[in-house]
Every structure is written in structure tokens, then in C-alpha cells.
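Incident log, structure service

09:12 report received: a user says their structure output differs between two submissions of the same chain.
09:20 pulled the input from the user's history:
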Amino acid sequence: MPASRWWTHVGRKLEGLTRGASTAKCARTRSLRQECRPARTRSRYGSNAPDGTGTTIHCIEQTQTLIIGTYAYDEDLDGDGGAGAFKCSNDAQMWLWNTIASASGGSLTNYAIEANGGTVLKRNHTNAAGTEEVSGAGSIGTF
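09:34 re-ran on a clean worker, output below:
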């Protein structure tokens, strides 16, 4: 497999991705699910859906995901909140290394990072816009 190609599980279908190319058909740009252990490098993901719903990169269930050198953004165009760049739920684990998150819009409820049950660990991470939110058994820390 070429070095520029990684595999990730999107929904129920296994799809090959090439450096940030998005083939998602839902509100999220990337949704990583159970037993998926991808490593994403030098990628750019974004969304500016009119309703500001969904999260750009969302790890759920028992995924373990290392994300390096990636820029994730979401723009809440209607100003009612809900934009999110990185989100980690259930028992998922996400490592953000040399990453940038931007969740912008007219609301204060736009999240650069949201952990609502999952664990997010950061190293050299920047929140360009948006806040960090922890709920349930979620946590955000450093590694």
C-alpha cells in the first residue's frame, strides 16, 4: 500500500482515503467507529454546513485514533451553535499531535474539542476558535 494511503472505517463501509480526501455522506466529515485504529497525518478536514450540525472528526465506541499534523474546522453559519472540530465519545481514545482545531460562528457553544465520554490527549495542539467541553465520563489532557 502506498505511504500516502490509509484505511479508515466510515459508517459500516471500509473506504480508502488519500491525504484528507473526504467521501463522507453524512453531517460529519469523518466518523471513526469500533475497532478502528487509524493514524491520520497531514490532513485537512472541514465543514460549513448551513445548520452547523455534526462534528468534523468524531471518534466513537472503542476506537483508538492518532491524529498528527491535521487541521479540522467547522463553521456555524446560522449562529445557533453546534459547530465542532474534534469530538470523542463512548470509550474512544483520541491523540491529537501537532493539530489545529477551529470551530467558529456566532455562538459560544462551538467546540474545538468535545469529550463526552471519550478521552482526548493533546501534544502541541492549538485551538484557533471554539472552546473545549468535557461531559459525562469524558476527559481532555496531554501526553
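09:41 both user submissions now match this output. Likely a transient worker issue. Closing.
09:42 reviewer note: The two ends are 30 Å apart (CA to CA). Residues 53 and 82 are 5 Å apart (CA to CA).
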